[in-house]
């Protein structure tokens, strides 16, 4: 006797290959840049129904841990299994029949004619009907599932499925609810079980399956809209997003109350992704003009909060029209800082290359008093990717900005735009030497590496300067210079004291300043306090150091006592000295 699948095993491979070319699978929900899943579009209803059947069969096999090969089964073997006293063999036989019914090859592409072709011989149907009256509940459930896949479901099978939905395990009730939904049952119990699975299991496959079933049931009833409308009041923002996405895929009439709830969420919900999803649901339901008109009204005539909400929706929906553009342009020059910042974010999301928008972003970089707005404008230019002479000039100017955040974002923007001409390289290399902020310096290094510019030359110059400065910062070099300065200050102090006691000394002091001052640039007889041979007294060098550190009049006594002339703490910040040296050289 030929097997149930032996006569068509070869045709199965060719048929499946042909069907995969003619009827592509439904698109899978993709994840956008902001981490949110997009809505699922069921454009090919016949193939989606077959895919739904295959999903139910796969779930049943995995949950019950059934491993069957319907291609090798024979009718005699199936009869022996269905009449066996062992429940496991009966369930295995029913699973083989169900698997063969779903996975058998299809002759032709018309899904409507599938029901006219018998999946199993008619002589097997009585055995399946008898299994519905078996003493074992698992055998009865398997027989009900088998009749569903054979499209020969009767009233007894429906009763079994309803009992499983109401009192069965969570997995079995989910499978039974799917079977009843595909049979067109739109009762409250079935819809409630599908919605429960939708909110409890957030996997991609379950979401697609539940949305498809609800879409099919929404053709016959409006109960789904009402039940989902109640879920819009949930305190969990992820539930509200899921409800909005599901509502956008439903068919049938929509009540005004549901539309008002979605409009309220679009403008008033505290979570920004919920607002975007509510607006998208309204557009999918055919209210695109309503959403557009409200966004235009908010962006043109609303207060600063309304403008920010409208800009957020425009960026989230990535929807810009000629009617919205004038109001959008005005937001770049708004009096409120947050509105200008949100306009920059929206421009980056839209990635529009409109010349007016680019000029507005450049004006913000050049003239905005808030440095954070300059950062967001630079970031928007990086996302847009349009490079002009003005954009390049402003980025080079931003590299030299006094604000570290502006310099940091300018480096990132240059790396994103891949600007690597000679002017940009020279500016980056110069800034690499002068930069004192650690984060900006690391970002400069990454930018040079991204632009294939070797920073070895910069490191050599910096190393040489650091070596020279470290030599000058040695204790042996600093102490004599500090002592000389101390002697100079001490001598000046003595002169001032003598001038107070002897009025004639003022004229001598005046003549000394006219002739060259206390530094000996005039007459030869004027003593120079900077000379190493000239001292204020005959004290030894050690005594001078001790007196110098103890003297309260000495301006350097406090710092010397704190630092104790140590090797580690006597060095000056290298970056500041390098900057001063280069500025003097210029």
From TrEMBL:
<dbReference type="GO" id="GO:0016491">
    <property type="term" value="F:oxidoreductase activity"/>
</dbReference>
<dbReference type="InterPro" id="IPR016024">
    <property type="entry name" value="ARM-type_fold"/>
</dbReference>
<feature type="region of interest" description="Disordered">
    <location>
        <begin position="516"/>
        <end position="543"/>
    </location>
</feature>
<protein>
    <recommendedName>
        <fullName>HEAT repeat protein</fullName>
    </recommendedName>
</protein>
<dbReference type="InterPro" id="IPR011989">
    <property type="entry name" value="ARM-like"/>
</dbReference>
<feature type="compositionally biased region" description="Polar residues">
    <location>
        <begin position="30"/>
        <end position="39"/>
    </location>
</feature>
<dbReference type="Pfam" id="PF13646">
    <property type="entry name" value="HEAT_2"/>
</dbReference>
<feature type="region of interest" description="Disordered">
    <location>
        <begin position="18"/>
        <end position="39"/>
    </location>
</feature>
<feature type="compositionally biased region" description="Polar residues">
    <location>
        <begin position="527"/>
        <end position="539"/>
    </location>
</feature>
